[in-house]
Structures are given as structure tokens and as C-alpha cells.
Specification:
2 copies of one chain form a homodimer. By secondary structure, chain A is α/β, with parallel strands linked by helices. Helix content of chain A is about 45%, strand content about 15%. Chain A contains 13 helices and 7 strands. In chain A, helix 6 (about 105-115) runs parallel beside helix 8. The two termini of chain A are about 15 Å apart. One adenosine-5'-triphosphate sits at the interface of chains B and A.
């Protein structure tokens, strides 16, 4: 059975999109068939994979409002085994447009349940979430089996993790009982910054084996790759950032069952 | 007349909170009476100024739902001339709770209009916004005179600026005609990263004199200060990050009229 995994954290700029793009691409290189769904109106995963988030009818919004079917919005990317459902700025209208729809949290889950035959051709489906705990993120949480939480090794990011865990528990209790946290990923780790080490220690004390052994260092190549429309693991596979995401992909595959 | 200024960018992690806390504190040190309003459910500006965003009835949510008055939610901070209206995680419920209220965008503006006598004792009021273009950000935009837009010198951040300008123009046309962009601030500038220079050039070509001459460098002391509940300009006033925010405060005061 394939796994649908949301990459989530309401704190902004912690490496959600960078993790979706590079973890998905690394898994694809290792032969796993992977689908990325960009559920952030900013559309960074879409442009990070070389596609356009404007003037493109094949997008997640047209799927959610049932204008197009799942097989009509999936596009291939320049990476073998990696396909994408792109974002659009129209996504930010969904909250207001569905305000009176009581079942709106289940929008994506229903579409997944109706299209198991299409989804089953993928080993992994990753959903990139916006930096908020609003409707789009709840839709992703309800539609997912598991979660990966990027945790930037900074004070504000660590502070926000409690709010996030509370929201996940609430969704698990009321909307999606099988939801579990597959792993917590430390990102933008900087050896020269004592705060990085402190967050690492605190996170491992608190979340124990849920925290991946692999830590993603701060590496400028990771932030240069998107301007070329390529995952860093393709743009520069020898840099420390790419090596870390390859290590993460191997660790991710080795602990198949969520702890 | 005082100015109400929102610090806004839907891209996450670009330095909105760091700018609100350090620009407001720098202005306070220069003798300007300043009020910070934390409109982000994450509450980073609140903890960055040493206050708690839990178990505190004096908060922006209780003001917006009219449970408390403006003078009942304003608190002093450890910084002279700097006062705060703190955040609470309850803020994230506002969107759903006010879904049927047609005037909800004007919630804060109405409160400001009713309390001009209290607001007039401040030279500047800064509103820290969450990383989204949803209701809380629209409430801030409608209630503001001017905007400061932190622009992280990275590819994804530059890409998102077009969406932001479109949203600002829409609010200006339909809800708040006097709204203007006071300045665009380049943040987390890293001399070793050619992308920083490229974003600087592109931003100044496009936004011309709206871009502040002062550029905030990437400086680890800026990210250490919040763990001590102090603005960096107080925690370590000699570091390059603090010096940059002092320079910004002086530039900010010198171009009083928005360009
Ligand atoms: N390990 C890293 N080293 C250096 N830069 C990084 C790293 N990871 C991400 N970045 C850069 O930092 C910025 C923030 O990362 P990213 O956009 O992936 O975060 P996000 O959590 O998806 O942000 P948002 O909350 O806006 O969706 C981007 O410009 C990205 O290129
Ligand atoms: N110039 C800088 N140099 C180094 N670190 C910085 C700088 N500015 C901000 N930071 C750190 O980067 C992270 C993101 O900054 P900050 O939280 O201020 O951004 P934000 O835009 O308010 O984020 P959000 O979108 O989540 O509200 C924080 O951990 C902060 O301490
Ligand atoms: Mg993102
Ligand atoms: Mg912030």
C-alpha cells in the first residue's frame, strides 16, 4: 500500500518545500514512483520542479473543486519517476468559497478514496503545505496517512512545535484517526550557531526516535537550485545539502513502518 | 498624526517578526513612543519581547471580539517607550468564527477609529502579520496607513512578491484607498551567496526608491536574541544585525513621507 505524506509546519520558512522537492526527487532516483502535490498558493514546489503556477489549468484547485479529474491534473516533471500536481494562486480563495460546506475538510480524502487505482501506481505521495494551520493544511492532514515535520534549528521554530502537535492531535481525534507522525527532520543546521545544537538536543529529548538521524545542514546550493527549476539533488548532487537529502531518503525507506 | 504600519509578506520566514521587534525597539531607543501589535497566532513577536502568548487575557483576540477594550489589552515591555498587544493561539479561530460577518475586514480599523485618543499617544504602531494572505492579514491591511515589506534575498521570496503586490492593490482599491508601501527591506543578506546580490539588483530595478538603502545581513545574534526574550538591539547592540536595524530606524525616520 502506498503512503500519502504531508510535509507540514505552520512556522514559515523552515524548509517544507525544500524537503518535499529534494526528498521526493531522491526517492525517485532510488526507483520509487513519487507524486508531489503542491497545496500552497505560493506554488514554490511547482516552480522548484520547473513548472508554472500561473496559466496552467492542470492544478490542484481545479481538482478540489471537481472541475478536472485526478488523471487530468497530474503532470510529469524533468525527473524520472516523479510527477506533480501543481499549485495556483486560486487556492487562497478556497477558504471563503467553501465556508458553508461542512465536509470541506474531507475534500481531498474523498478524491483519494475515489481514485485508489491511480494512486496505487505511486510508492509515495508528498503534499507540500502552506505555513498556516488553516483550511488547506487541515485538508492535507485529513487526506494523509503520515506526516513529516521539518524543524528549523532556531528558537521560534522550536517554540511553535507545541501548537503544531496540538493541532495534529485534534485532527487525529476528530477527523483522521490513522494519522501519525512518521518523522521530524532538523533543517538549516549550522555548526557555528550554538542554538542549532541546543534545538537538536531539545528535540531529541522530547521526540526521541521520531527525530531522523539525518540532519540537513544550511547549504547555499539548496537555495540556488530553485532558480534553475531543479531539485538540488539533480542541480548539484555532490554538495552537502544534496548528500543530506540522499541520506534522508535512505533513512526514510529503512524505517518503513512509522515509529 | 501617528502612523499604523503593517509588516507583511505571505512568504514564510523572511524576517517579519525580527523586523517588527528590532525596528520598533530601535525607534523606542530613539525616543519614539511605539506600540507593537502581534496579529500572528504563532505569537513570535510576543515572546520575542519577553511576554507570554498563553494564559494571558490581555491579548489581541479579546480586543477583536470586543471582550476587552484597547486600553485593557496594552502592556508595557522591558523596553522604555515600547508597548505591546500580545497574540494568542485563539487568533487562528477568528476566520471560522467570523465567516458570516460581512464587515469582518474592518474589525481592527473600527477599533482604531473609536480609540484615536489612545492611539495618538504613539508615534508609530507596528502590526506583525502571519505568513499568509488570509483574514488576519486582510484585517491588518485594512487597519493600516502604510506597509513595510521584508524581502528575504532568496529566489522563492522574490518570486512571491508579485502575488503580494496584487493583494495589496486589491485591498487598496476595495477596502483601504490610503494604503501605501512605505518601504521594502532586504533581509538575511549573505555576501558569500551570489543569489543575495541578484535579488538586491532585481528588487532595486523593480521597486526603485521604495527599497531601503539599509540592508539587514544574515547574523546569528538576531536569531539568538528571542530565546532571551529581548530585541537584539538590546540583547547585543554592538553586533552587525543590531547596527543594521539602528541604521534602518534612522533611515525610516528620515523619509517620513512614504515615497
Ligand atoms: N538547508 C538549507 N540551507 C540553506 N537554505 C535553505 C535550506 N533549506 C531551505 N533553504 C532556503 O530557505 C528558504 C526557506 O525554505 P523553504 O521555502 O523550503 O521553506 P518553507 O517552510 O517551505 O517556507 P514557507 O513557509 O514559505 O512555505 C528558501 O529560500 C530555501 O531555498
Ligand atoms: N538577518 C537575520 N539573520 C539571521 N537570522 C535571522 C535574521 N532575521 C531573522 N532571522 C531568524 O530567521 C528565522 C525567521 O525569521 P522571522 O521569524 O523573523 O521571520 P517571519 O517572516 O516573521 O516568519 P513567519 O513567516 O513564520 O512569521 C527566525 O528564527 C529568526 O530568528
Ligand atoms: Mg513552502
Ligand atoms: Mg513572524
Amino acid at each position: 500500500k502506498n503512503k500519502i505524506i504531508s510535509v507540514i509546519n505552520q512556522k514559515g520558512g523552515v524548509g517544507k518545500t525544500t524537503t518535499v522537492v529534494n526528498l521526493a526527487a531522491s526517492l525517485s532516483i532510488l526507483g520509487q514512483k513519487t507524486l508531489v502535490i503542491d497545496l500552497d498558493p505560493q506554488g514554490n514546489a511547482t516552480t522548484g520542479l520547473g513548472k508554472s503556477n500561473t496559466n496552467n489549468e492542470k492544478n490542484i484547485y481545479n481538482l478540489l473543486i471537481r472541475k478536472l479529474n485526478l488523471n487530468e491534473v497530474i503532470e510529469s516533471t524533468s525527473v524520472q519517476n516523479l510527477e506533480l500536481i501543481s499549485s495556483t494562486v486560486n487556492l487562497s480563495g478556497l477558504e471563503v468559497e467553501t465556508a458553508t460546506n461542512e465536509d470541506r475538510a474531507f475534500t481531498l480524502k474523498k478524491i483519494f478514496d475515489e481514485n485508489k487505482n491511480i494512486l496505487n501506481k505511486y510508492d509515495y505521495v508528498f503534499i507540500d503545505c502552506p505555513p498556516s494551520l488553516s483550511l488547506l493544511t487541515v485538508i492535507a492532514l485529513v487526506g494523509s496517512d503520515e506526516l513529516v515535520v521539518p524543524l528549523q534549528t532556531e528558537f521560534f521554530a522550536l517554540e511553535g512545535i507545541t501548537q503544531l502537535i496540538k493541532t495534529i492531535d485534534r485532527v487525529k481525534e476528530n477527523l483522521n484517526p490513522q494519522l501519525s507522525v512518521r518523522g521530524i527532520l532538523l533543517t538549516m543546521f549550522d555548526k557555528r550557531n550554538k542554538l542549532s545544537g541546543e534545538v537538536d538536543t531539545e528535540a531529541r529529548n522530547h521526540f526521541k526516535s521520531k527525530v531522523y538521524n539525518t540532519v540537513i545542514p544550511r547549504n547555499v546550493r539548496l537555495s540556488e537550485a530553485p532558480s534553475h527549476g531543479l531539485p538540488c539533488v539533480i542541480y548539484d548532487k555532490t554538495c552537502v545539502g544534496s548528500k543530506a537529502y540522499f541520506d534522508l531518503a535512505n533513512e526514510f525507506l529503512s524505517n518503513k513502518e512509522s515509529v
